[in-house]
Design brief:
Layout lengths: L25 H16 L4 E3 L9 E4 L8 E12 L2 E6 L7 E6 L2 E7 L5 E7 H13 L9 E5 L1 H5 L3
Antiparallel strand pairs: 1-2, 2-3, 3-6, 4-5, 5-8, 6-7
Bound molecules: zinc ion (ZN).
Zinc ion binds next to helix 2.
Length: 159
Amino acid sequence: MSIMKLVLYPAEVLEKRCERVKIFDRKLAVFLDDMYDTMIEFDGVGLAAPQVGHTQQIAIVDIGDEHGRIELINPKVIEQRGEQVGPEGCLSFPGLFGEVERADYVKVHAQNRKGRPFVMEARGFLARAMQHEIDHLHGILFTSKVLRYIEEDELETEG
Ligand SMILES: [Zn+2]
């Protein structure tokens, strides 16, 4: 188990477009495991490679539901529907929360750690988390989409 250092805003690496992953080797598998350990350590529900200083199209999501740990390599939203507005935070912006509008449903095409392509559908909070992480891979930060910032105590009353 290896915890990586989180990149906090502001940092150039957080606003760069990431490169596609072409090599699916043991190094990638170790990196994914380290990303997961880091996300859990910092209590996140998602983490994108730029947040640990790597400009590659790699993200992980685990919102603690039945889907468990989702590894997204070279992900792309291929379909989206509806809208939802809800609170969002980011491990690169400790203590900052804001309401962000996202699609309520997404269909995402990605590759797993072995390079095998898959398509996944998600709704609600899982769809939100996936859109947030995929944005990171394009250098897009949630702060550019915040409709209204939220105080931390206001967030807690929402559960
Ligand atoms: Zn984030």
